Structures are given as C-alpha cells and as structure tokens.
C-alpha cells in the first residue's frame, strides 16, 4: 500500500522547465519536488479532499502587487498545462495518477492530479460537444502491464500532447 501523498506548493518563478522530465529520468515520485521560498508570492488553497475527489491547490498573486508588463498579454493566452510526472498508487486498487501543473500567469498556477480515465472521460465529452474535432489520446492498454515505466512515460508524453492540443484549439480553450 502506497503512502498517501500530500499537496505541496509548487515554486513559481523563472519557468516550469525545471519540473519537466526526460526519458532517462524517472518521474514516478512526487516527493522529490522541492518548494522554494517564492511560495510567499501566493496564498495556498486546499480544496476539500474526499475519497473520490482530486487534490488541487493554487497560488494567487497579492492584491498590492503591481502589474508586470510581461504578464499583460497572459490574459489572452490559455492556461498552459504541463504534466510533471506520475505515481502508481496502491490504495484499494492499483492505478496511476498524473501530476499536472497549470500556469495561468507567471504569478498564478496550480497543480491537479488526474487519472487516465479522467482524460478519457474528458475526451468523450469533447467528442459530444465538438463532433467534428478529434483529439488524439494515448491508447488504453488491455493485455500488458499498465505499470511498466516505459509505457507510463510514453503515455505521459501522449497525455502532454493531448493537453497542448486541447488548449491550442480556440473553440475549446475559450
């Protein structure tokens, strides 16, 4: 049985690239993500944590902070999701959770945890709402090990592409 994970504030600063992983570096542990003192820029918010709910938290800019010229155009841009990693959970049943960083502005970001089935349900709903538009979702695996590290890394890359295509589509993102 895996130990329950605790939401941790993500450092907000130069870029999210420090959280990206490559194929040689395993991203299966969320505990290795460290926080920085930049967390004083925002206020941590926890959502209610039920048995079936996902964990979410965000940072908000201070009210007194002046508008940075670099962030003026961020309002026109969609949020940019980045999959930071995954963790195989073994609570009641074994499943994989993907950790996603969403940056709305340089000062405002949050992290959500989602399973593959959440992406699949979202894709099904998008097919209903936008019948002419198809997003490529990595395939479900039926007969082999779903917890193989190479498979999970490939799926993570596929889910990242799915999210990028999702926010790039003007009808869906707006």
Q: State Rg.
A: 17 Å
**Major sheet: arrangement of strands:** 1-2-5-4-3
CATH superfamily: Phox-like domain
Contiguous uncertain segments of 5+ residues: 1-72
**What's the helix-strand series?**
EEEEEHHH
Helix content: 10-25%
Q: How many domains make up the coordinates?
A: 1
- CA distance, first residue to last residue: 41 Å
Derived from helix and strand composition plus strand pairing, the structural class reads alpha+beta
How many H/I helical runs? 3
Binned strand content: 15-25%
- Overall pLDDT level: 69
CATH architecture: 2-Layer Sandwich
CATH topology: PX Domain
Beta-strand segment tally: 5
Shape category: globular
Q: What's the level 1 CATH class? A: Alpha Beta
**What can be said about the biggest beta sheet?**
5 strands, antiparallel
Task: For the structure shown, list the relevant keywords.
174 residues; alpha+beta; PX Domain; five-stranded antiparallel beta sheet; 3 helices; globular; disordered N terminus; lipid-binding
How does this structure look, described?
- The protein has 3 helices and 5 strands, in the order E-E-E-E-E-H-H-H.
- By secondary structure, it is an alpha+beta fold.
- It has a single domain, classed as 2-Layer Sandwich (PX Domain).
- The N and C termini lie far apart (41 Å).
- The N terminus is likely disordered.
Brief overview:
With 174 residues, this protein is of the alpha+beta class. The protein contains three helices and five strands, in the order βββββααα. The N terminus is likely disordered.
